[in-house]
Design a protein that fits this description.
Low-confidence stretches: 1-11
Largest sheet: 7 strands, mixed
Strand order of the largest sheet: 3-2-1-4-5-7-6
Strand content: 5-15%
CATH architecture of the largest domain: 3-Layer(aba) Sandwich
Order of helices and strands: HHHEHEHEHEHHHHHHHEHEHE
CATH topology of the largest domain: Rossmann fold
CATH superfamily of the largest domain: Vaccinia Virus protein VP39
Structural class: alpha/beta
Oligomer: single chain
Radius of gyration: 22 Å
Number of helices: 15
Bound molecules: S-adenosylmethionine
Length: 344
């Protein structure tokens, strides 16, 4: 039998970068292929290596969730599995962790990663689900309640750093921003369809944008193919702002759009409503938030649950990352942690 001729593997040129350090995603090939020395250097500089995520406030979360052998745990936002990995190590033997994530691209990678660390189907299952559907995920697994539940809101570093996902103005890419690219509409389509008054309301409600009234007519109904085009249009609409202020404005507009595209507040409100019924009596929940719109909702829901007797105790003060963590991981800076314990 004759064999197919083997075609030579085409030589792929490495992307060259100017300066000492790579800046663009495609230049960071050493990080992407897991070069240990490069990864250590990136972490030492307070940054996150491409394709990974550094879990935030791990010690504080472990303290408030107090995982122990045999516990049923839920990680509503599995991401890279950094928190999940720590919880899994503490609920053995006999415990089980359900990891949920809306992202169909990252979830299988994290499942492979956690399996390679030795967590098989008996201790860890991965579920491609919005956390708004947590009661259904638990019911399908015949679980009546969890001992501990964690939600670490927002997007992962893998999502922010990948230009193809379109989350960040720092990396030019299609203006998408969907955590689940198989659902709903990309940010570009949303902007093209929305009317100025609705956009002004969205910018004010979702990111407290002070320039919402000026920005809305400049952006609504327009067609922006890429993150960079949108960033440029935001800056052009506010020519008198200084660099720092306009960078902040761009970040707030991107945040508001991301919240809208992924319907983040209604998913969070549904989760907060369902939480007491998803916990066993005495079960604990911890929620890590990254902006005031999220923290406000968590605080209000926990206070209402305490008043109504659903929770026996809640965090009286918000917990923040230590100065040391903020210095060693700049992405931890805005984090706020709250917890609640279900009544017996
Ligand atoms: C900040 S990351 C979590 C990182 C994770 N704790 C770790 O240690 O790697 C947030 C993750 O939650 C997911 N996510 C955000 N909103 C979600 C929702 N409503 N339902 C399910 N997953 C969601 C995102 O896709 C992302 O992977």
């Amino acid at each position: 039998m004759s064999e197919e001729p083997i075609s030579p593997i085409p030589h792929k040129r490495r992307v060259r970068y100017g300066g000492k350090n790579p800046r663009r995603f495609e230049e960071k090939y050493k990080e992407q292929r897991g070069d240990a020395a490069t990864i250590a250097k990136v972490i030492a500089s307070g940054k996150t290596p491409i394709g990974t995520h550094r879990p935030i406030m791990v010690a504080e979360i472990l303290e408030v969730l107090a995982p122990k052998a045999g516990d049923i745990a839920v990680d509503c936002t599995l991401g890279y599995g950094g928190h999940a990995q720590e919880l899994l190590a503490r609920i053995a033997p006999g415990g089980k962790l359900l990891g949920l994530d809306a992202d169909p691209l990252q979830l299988p990678k994290t499942e492979v990663r956690l399996r390679a660390l030795g967590f098989d189907e008996t201790v860890f299952t991965a579920h491609r689900s919005n956390f708004a559907g947590l009661p259904q995920v638990l019911a399908a697994q015949n679980i009546s309640g969890a001992d501990l539940i964690l939600a670490d809101l927002g997007v992962s570093s893998m999502q922010i750093d990948d230009p193809a996902r379109g989350f960040s103005v720092k990396h030019d890419g299609p203006l998408d921003m969907r955590m689940n690219p198989q659902r709903s509409q990309p940010a570009a389509a949303l902007l093209q369809k929305i009317k100025p008054p609705a956009l002004a309301e969205m910018l004010a409600d979702f990111s407290d944008e002070p320039q919402a009234a000026t920005l809305a007519p400049a952006l609504a109904g327009k067609s922006f193919a890429t993150t960079r085009e949108l960033g440029d249009a935001i800056r052009a609409a506010l020519p008198r702002l200084g660099k720092d202020e306009s960078d902040l404005t761009v970040r707030r507009v991107f945040q508001a759009l991301r919240i809208a595209v992924n319907d983040e507040f209604s998913a969070l409100e549904t989760l907060l409503r369902n939480l007491p019924a998803c916990l066993k009596p005495g079960g604990r929940v911890a929620v890590l938030t990254f902006h005031s719109g999220e923290d406000r909702r968590v605080k209000k829901a926990f206070e209402a649950g305490l008043r109504d007797g659903l929770y026996a105790d809640i965090a009286r003060e918000v917990m923040r990352p230590t100065a040391e963590e903020r210095n060693s991981n700049s992405r931890s800076a805005p984090a706020k942690l709250r917890w609640a314990r279900r009544a017996d």
